[in-house]
Task: structure prediction
Amino acid sequence: MGNILVVAEHRQGVLRDISFEMMAIAPKIAEQMGGEVIVLLIGSGMDEMAKKMSEYGVKVMVIDDPLFEYFNAEKYQKILSALIDDLKPAVLMTGQTAQGVDFMPALAVEKKLPLVAEAIDLNYEDSTLKATRQIYSGKVNATVAFKPADTYLVTIRESAVEAPEPSASGSVEKLDSPLKEDISYRKFVEYIEAEVGDVDITQSDILVSVGRGLKEDKNLPVIEELAQAIKADISGSRAATDAGWIPHDRQVGTSGKTVKPKLYVAMGISGAFQHLAGMKGAKTIVAINKDPEAPIFAVADYAIVDDMFKVVPALTEKLKGLKG
Amino acid sequence: MKTFVCIKYVPDTSEAEVKVNPDGVTVDSSRFSFDINDADNYAVEESVLIKEDKGGEVTVVSIGPKQSDVMIRMAMAKGCDKALRVEDERIADHDPLMVARVLAGAIKGQEFDLVFTGCWADDDGHMSTGVALAEYLGVNHASMVKKVEILDGKVKAHRELEGGLMEVVELELPAVLTIQTGINEPRYAPIRGIRQAQKKELNVAGLDDLGIDPAEVGSDASQVIVENLYIPEVESTAEFIEGEPEEKAEKLASILVKGGLV
Ligand SMILES: Cc1cc2nc3c(=O)[nH]c(=O)nc-3n(C[C@H](O)[C@H](O)[C@H](O)COP(=O)(O)OP(=O)(O)OC[C@H]3O[C@@H](n4cnc5c(N)ncnc54)[C@H](O)[C@@H]3O)c2cc1C
Ligand SMILES: Nc1ncnc2c1ncn2[C@@H]1O[C@H](COP(=O)(O)O)[C@@H](O)[C@H]1O
Result:
């Protein structure tokens, strides 16, 4: 039997989107392999979350213990190592998230099992499990096949697929934890919330956003002038915030903010999926990039392939003129 | 503090057209410019900052071709003390578990407090090598680290979670930390450092020199196969605005104004 064990993810009392997104992939693989989906929840005070996951018509197994109030990679590894032996799942799946990347590779090494990280799709055909993943920042797709193994480990990219609607009622079962005592090598200390800046870009109507294409911060006035002309706030890609050109709280993307402005103007931003995930919900997207192959164009409504420094100053002038 | 820092020589494909070779499983990299992986650059800086603060020694480890010596020398110009470059055709470098196994073989048996890797390689981006390496070395780890505080026999690591939330954890040393970009401001190599780097020790080794069994890290040992590579179709529904830069600007401005977007 080819059961799919899905490690659902939650944080600060809330299930994370990836847990639902995996419900678009796991049932498909379970059907192809002839098994069922088992969702595993590890945490403390899990009743609500367990019920919510069971609404996908799956069997939910819960390890509910104050010992697991906070995620801890070593505890997860110990529990999953034991469960792989007990349940012998055909596939062990979780998200390619700050949580998933923190334990899956170590688990793969410990159990001598294969791992494919950050799959965007998964298929079981001709008795082979195959994953699609992206390399070179999304410019190339790779089909990766697993050699036959007892359990395949795979992590799924966030926002790669849309979460389905809950479908049917499933079941919830408490599981006795294979790990009974605390582990002392690694301790949770605290969470530190993201800093709050002068402007909350999640509330902005218009964002002009810059990336590595800005080249250096002395080029920023060109962008500021455009922003002023159309009463926009300035945001940026991670490359722009890492470089210190714009403040960290103005970063758009998975590790920054998710924004939904009426207008988003992306300049010198390639459109890595971590960035797209944070802005593809904008109503209208304009992208200016000198690389015609830039992935940002996939989500754009209006596209200009050119040097931003040739286009943007002219754009600012025209807008000033038109708006009087 | 004795630190190892693992760095990878990667192509910059942000502005380049990427083509798959006729073999269907490799990318034509002949026209790419290569340099240190972005996150690894921050890892190098962090290791040097810790050395400057606490004393000790930093060793660079890289699996890669002769051409990457330039990158390794640059890391030494910034303050790393010595380096080991591993070069061996038999390494199944498509599989991060195999890469981690080789890195572990290069480090194992030597004393260390910290091992740094980048959290993500810009080319094949598995986000797996560092955490797998920790398991091979049998030490603690924390991934996606954006702040490091060295305590007595311990390290406090600030892990970057989604949405910018930080999770602070405390680990016992020795430990592997995978470093996230933005943790510091990588320095430029000083001229004096560049001169000194030429005299620093850069060893080159193959699997046999390191006592690593090729059968454990080759394509037979890897349990995954890259079957084919292809360029994904970018299905753009965008309206591409054509013309000279001035014309493009003018057309876009009128679209934005007429559409009531600004
Ligand atoms: C765990 C993790 C989390 C991440 N979270 C985020 C996140 O939240 N947000 C985010 O943005 N990224 C995030 N990233 C990083 C992401 O993978 C990319 O590295 C980043 O988005 C690249 O930023 P960029 O597009 O500005 O730079 P690049 O990818 O380097 O692109 C620069 C672009 O500018 C163009 N360009 C250059 N010069 C010009 C010019 N003169 N005129 C016009 N165009 C020009 C180039 O053609 C290129 O397309 C994350 C990465 C990791 C590993
Ligand atoms: N060939 C290599 N040589 C040295 N370090 C590497 C190599 N490949 C990967 N790494 C390290 O592993 C990190 C993560 O890579 P990855 O798991 O592929 O995303 C990189 O940032 C490097 O620090």
In short: The helical segments of chain B are 38-54, 69-77, 96-107, 129-137, 191-197, 207-210, 214-217, 245-258. Chain B has a mean pLDDT of 97. The pocket of adenosine monophosphate (ligand 2) is lined by residues B 6-8, 37, 39-40, 62-64, 96, 99, 117-118, 120-121, 124-130 (CB under 6 Å).
